[in-house]
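Bit of a strange request maybe. I'm writing a small parser for structure token strings and I need a real example to test against, not something I typed by hand. Could someone generate the tokens for this chain?
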Amino acid sequence: MKYFFIISFFITSAASAQVTKFSDRDLYELGKIWGLMKYYHPAISQGKVDWDAVLLETFANTSKKDVNAITTHWLSTADQRNFIEIIKKNSECDSITLRNFDSSWIGKLKKIQPKNKTRLLNLISQPKNVGTFYSNPVENSIRYNSKNEKVYTAFSAELKMLDLFRIWNAIEYFYPYKYLLDHQWDDILKKYIPIFKNIRNEQDYKSAVMRLSSEFQDSHTEFETKYQYDVMGKLSAPFIFQIVDNVVLITGIKDEAKMKKANLELGDLITKIDGKSVIKNIDQKSVYFAFSNESVKLREAYSYLFSGNESSMLVEGTKKNGATFKTNVERIQRIFNNEWDKDGIPNYQLTYKGKMYEYLTYNEKESRLNPSFSLDDKVYFEFASLKAEEIPTLMETYKNSKGMVFDLRGYNNSGALLKVFDYLFAQPQNFGIKTQADFSQPGKFCFVDQIIDKSYKFIGKENPDAYKGKVIVIINEYTQSAAEMWAMIFKKIPGVIFVGSQTAGADGNTTSIKLTDGNDLMFSGLGIYYPDGSETQRIGIKPDIIVRPTVQSIRNKQDLLLLKAFELIDGVK
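Reply from user aminoacidic:
Good idea to test on real output. This should exercise your parser:
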């Protein structure tokens, strides 16, 4: 065993040394040049050159360290390969946006001679015969696709540096919201080169790549195969909870024996975990997770706040009666995506005019929540459970109601639900536009004057009998992606009121980067905008009236957002 350890250490160290022979600046310039050639050089972009192999060979060649000489070699290698002449297709673009595009970095390369700079600049400024082998190999697709990226079974420092270059360049050229980042994307490459150079094992890699993904600042970002349990720990709390007013409120029990042993109960407030405040814990751990805005930062903390590999943790807080406590809690193993109550949200009820109503009821036969609940002259729709075939009957049944409430706190991406707007709009409405990558000019994006497709540029129809009552829409941080698109359409209803809090700010169909180990790293693949070009990404949909749950309302399982919606309808004269 001792000899095996020594040999393993030697191999790992030697592999790492082949990457560390380059300075951070060298790797920065090589990473950018490699990416530009990957997506712009005719032979490489058409898949005529194994571009991974060229990079890995560069790392393995201990004699060649000069960045300019390497660039010359790369260009020569690619130029010797045949490629096909590509006839440029007519574009459906209404306009091209350059806000994600910048070629000025070529002139600032410190290690590259003028001749090679000119060649690189010509590739990107005069693109010809640009293929889509590495960027869009699926016919009629409008999103980046990495299905042709190679997968490796081995582990090496070179492969992990390849991963960094692969991820960074995919975002550089094909992430529609790169311009909205709080940081310069160039700085992220500089920041992570030393981190990836120091990767020695799988644990180092998973930690590094999770931190890198967080820099996307995109709530769509996730790994198909989760790394978080290896990085954050496989154990977590024996309870479910909500974060409210910067503290943790216990809303459910996962392990009754461990809860009893720690003397914890439903409704208890936790203010500290292992001596640190809840917010400090979130700030320290959230560096591994991507979020578009602060509301999602708190939402996503559910899956990692209490995570660890230690068998127990120390928590402090307050009981319902105001008494303080400090207790050790034993952790349990949990896989959050396998839990039906993974968000910690209690089964809310509506307290209205002194009476309690179960407005969310489960239909055992259909395995879903019932989509509607009516009370007096008001009706509530649980949009996530709604089916298109139910819409005509429901709209006819409630056409004379005083008000309708549409709850977008769940998720439903069925395009057939557009039918509901036939009853809510008096005439067709254009609700948004999108950007998609121009794969013949990577880094540039094409504006298209619709979001879904040409046939759905306008939603709704001419309807003189459109619904005349008040429409209220409920939103919060769980309103994400397709739900945010629904919110954009509801915005077109005259007099509509949005109640709740800021949405997730992640809009546009997802796509993924294939990693060297075969995992997929998701991000938003299309840009979604209002008709005037203003964003929802990161900003989300903002409510007209802000209403958030309180400690007391969650303890009592009261839905303050629905209550406010009904009160607004009652107030209509």
